[in-house]
Amino acid sequence: MSETIFLIDGMYLLFSSFYSNRNMRTLKGEPTGAIYGFVTRVESIIRDVQPHRIGVAFDSKEKTFRHQWFEPYKAKRLVPPEELVQQIPLVKEYLALRGIQLFEASGFEADDVIAACSTAEAGKGNDVLIFSADKDLFQLVDDHIFIFHPKLKQKLDASAVKEHFGVSPRQIVDYLSLTGDTSDNIPGVPGIGEKTALKIIEKFQSLDNLLNNLDEADEKIKKKIENNRESLQISRQLIDLANAPEIKEEFLIKPFKDEITPQLLDFYRKLSFSSLLKRFEDTAKTKPEVRTTTLDIKYEIIKNAHQLKQLKEKIREEKYFAFDLETTHLEFFRAEIVGLSISFKSEGYYIPFLYSKADARDITIGFDDFKKELAELFAAPDIKKTGHNLKFDILHLRHHGIEVNGAADDSMVMSYLIHPNRRAHNLKDLTLEFLKYRQVEYDELVGKGKEQKKLIAVDMETLSKYCIDDSYLSLKLVDILGKSIKEKALEDLYTNIEMPLVKILMEMEYAGVRVDVDFLKRAAKTMEEKIDSIEQEIYQMAGYRLNLNSSQQLGELLFEKMNLPVKKKTRKTKSYSTDIEVLNELKEFPIVAKIIDYRTYKKLLSTYLIGLLDSVDNSSRVHSSFNQTVTATGRLSSSDPNLQNIPVGEVAGINVRDAFIAEEGKFLLAADYSQIELRVMAHFSQDPNLLEAFARDFDIHQHTADTVFGDDLFSSPKEKRKRAKIINFSVLYGSGPYSLSKELGVSFKEARNFIDMYYEKHAGVKAFMDEVIAKAEKEPEVKTISGRRRDIPEILSSNRIVKENGKRMAINTVIQGSAADIIKIAMINIHRKMEQAGMKSKLVMQVHDELVFEYPPGEERQLLQIVKEEMENAVELRVPLKVDLETGKTWGSLKKVI
After folding, report:
1. What predicted TM-score, i.e. pTM, was given to this entire model?
2. Counting runs of H as helices and runs of E as strands, what totals does the chain give?
C-alpha cells in the first residue's frame, strides 16, 4: 500500500516565516517569528494533508560541491540576520519534540537531500509532496513526485507546473539555465530573461535541440548563446539536481509523533504561543497541569463585615494594592459587577457581589457594604492602585458610584511601552512569559458554546482564585516590567503621560457622545432604498440577478460575460480580483461605477448607520473604547464603535457626522491641530523652507505648490494645491514613486520627478530622513519627541521590500508618534485645567489630531481659551503649533470660531 510522504524545504520555510512575522517576539523581546511561522505551517500540513511521514531538509553549513565547480556560486548571498539564526535551534527542538525527521548532509544543499529522498520514496511507489516555492525543485515532478506550493496552496503535478510556469518539469533545468538565478549567482545567458527563455523553450523544446539547431534561432539570441556557451554550460551543471554526487547517508523517513505531548505544550508556553496552546491543549494525549508553577499567596473570600473592616485596615496600612473586577458584560452600561479582588504582595482577597444560591449561605455583605467601607480608600489619591487594563476596572466602578484616584501602575501599559510592536498585551500571556505561571482561561472557567454557563454560576472558590490571580499577578508583573521601564528610560513617558491618560480616557468613554437616533434611522432607511434601487440597475445592466457581495460572481460577470480587461487575479486562488483598486481602474464602464456605489452604500449602512444604532445606550449616547495599547506609533485608536473612521463630509448624500450631536442645551467644540505632522517634520528637520512657511502662517500646501512646482504644472490652482497636498503627505509617510503615481494618476517617471523636485526645495527634510534611517540601521529603533521607543528590525532585512518598509516605519514613527505624544500632553493639561476650574465641560471624542468637547453655553469662552492655550503650548517646537476651533450643535456642521 502506497503512502503519502511530505518533504519540506526547511530553508525556504524558515526564511519565509521569518520575514512574514518579523515583529513577533516574546514579552522579553526575544524574536520568535521564524519559529512561529514554521510551527504553524507544519501543524497545518499535518492537519490538512494528513501525510503518513514527514521529513525536513536543511542546507549544510559547509560549502558544497557546487562551489568547487563554480567559485562565485551564491557569492552575493547576504549573511542571514542574527535574529533568524538564533531561532534555528528552536526549529530543530520543535522537530525533535514532534518526532519529525531532520535531514542534513555535509557538503550538500537541502535541494539535493530532497531530490535523493523523493526519488528513493517514489521508487517504492509512494507519493511525495515537496513543500517549496523554489523552482529548482520543480524539475523533480513526475507521476509520484509533486510540488505543494506554499503561495498557490496547491498540489502541482506536471501539467500544473506547465500551466503556472510555462514549462514542463523536464524543461525546468533548460529554462533556468538560460535565465540564470541572481539569488544563487548562477549566470545563465546575459540578455535572456524569463519571457525570451519561454519563447526559446516553446520553439526548440529543449536546450540540446537549441544548441544543435542554433542557426534556426533569432540572430540576437544566436549571438548571445555563442558568446556565452561556457556560462550556459556551468549554469546547467549547477541547476540540474541529477548532476549531484551520490549522498552516502541513507535517509529513512520515519513516522512522526501524531500526538501532542506535555513536552510540546511546554515548548509552546516557553515561547508564549498562546494560540497554539489553546488549539492543542484540549487534544493533548496527557493533560498538562493547569499551572506550571505555584503562587506563594494566601487566598481569602470576604464574606462578612468583620473581614471587610480588616481588609480596610490592611489597605490603609499598605497604601498600595492591585485590584481587578469580574463583570457580566464588557460594556459598563450593560454590566453588573460579579466580584472584585484586592491583592498585596503575599495575599489576595475576593469580595463577592453576585453568586449562586449554593454559595450564598455564609455571605452577609453586599456591594453597598463594600461601597460604604472602601469607596473612600479607592478615591484617596495617596493610596496607590495598580492592575492590568485599569481603565476597564475604573470605568465600571465609576458607573457603580465609586471613584478611583491614585492609579499608579498598569502592567498592560508597561508592557505596551516596552514592546509596542506586539499584537497584544494580555495578562495571561505576560504571566506565562515572565512568571512561568499559566492562568486559567476564561473558557475553562465558564465553558464554550452550548455548554457555557454564566459567571455567577461558577463556584465561588474557583472564581475567587481566578479573580485574585488577575490582581495579584498584575502586581508581580509591575515589579518585573518596572525594571525594563527604567532600563529603557521610559519612566517620564510612563509616569507623566501614559498613566495620567488612563483616567482621561476612562472619563471620555464614560461620558460618551450623544447621537441623533432618529437621524440614523431615517438615514438607514434612505440608504436601504438606494441600495435596493442600485441593485436593480446593476441586474438590468448585467441581464441577470447575481450576488453582488460575491467576488467570484462579480468576476465572472465583468471579465467573462462582459469581457472587461482583466487587471489582476488573487494570489491564493487565482480568481478574478474585484477589489477597489481594480474597480477604480475600470470605473469608466457604467456597470463598474454602479458596483463601486453599491459597495460604498453598503459599507455606509452596515458600519456607520446600523453599527452606530447597535452601540447606543439608553440615553442615546455611544461609548467608544479609546485604545491606549494598540498602535505601535503611540497613537490612540477607537473601537466599538470606531469613531476615528467616521467619514468627513457627505457620502451618498448623508453626512454621518451630523448624527453626532450635543446634549439638549449644550454645544460641541472641535479643536483640530493644523498640519501637526508637517510641523513636527519642520521641527526635527529644521528645513528652512518649512520653518519659514509655518513661521509666516502660510497655507503649507499652496506654499508647496508655488515653491516646488511653479506656475505651469497644473492649469487649475485648486487642482494644483490638491496635488501638492498629496505630495506633502506622500513624502512625509515615505511613499515611493509607484504609490505617488497611483494617487496622482501620473506616470512613475513623473511621480519620481515630483519627489526629486520636493527634496531639491526641502533639502533639510531629505537630510533628516536619511539621518533617521542611518541611526536606525545602526541601532534598530527610533524615538519620538517624548522618548517613546519602537524597535524597527525590518530595517536590517536583506529583503529589499521588507527593508524599505522598515525605513518608512522608522520615519513615520518619529513623526506620527511625536504628534501623538503632543496631543496626549495637551489632553492631560486641558483635563487638569478644567478640573481645577470645576467646569462641567467634557472631552467626548479624540479623533486623530482632533479633540471634541461637549460644554454648557456659560463655559464657552473659558473652554475656548483653555483648549487653545494648552494645545498650542503642549510642547515647544521650532515652529508654532496652531489649532483650528469650531463650535455648533452637530459634529458635521460646526462653524469656525474667529
Report:
1. 0.77
2. 37, 24
